[in-house]
Amino acid sequence: MPHSQTITNEVSDNLAIGSRIRKRREELGFSREELSRLTGISIKFLYEVETGKKGLSSRSIILMSQYLMISCDYILLGTSCPGYQNETLYALITSIPGEKRKQITELLEKMINIVNLSRI
Question: What is the pTM of this model?
Fold first, then answer.
């Protein structure tokens, strides 16, 4: 493949990836500043990613995936993998520090019990 074709594909990929990230960030109601703070990616760099000017490292894709609650497949390819919601929930819970994780887990268990009781 000619070098110019590779560059064109990379720019096109970056634009599509950035567009998906921006769309999901907006769906969740995050400002660019909030997502930047959560992921540790600078606001300027996040802007450049969302506009297709820059690409993300694999670590940054994983962070985006966790905080935006979408699969890496979706970020990269625009498709989701089955069962990802469970992985996302697990990743979010395990990212919470010690005692707070225990409190969140207990709260989730109570909520699940309430939902299950309401089905009866």
Answer: 0.63
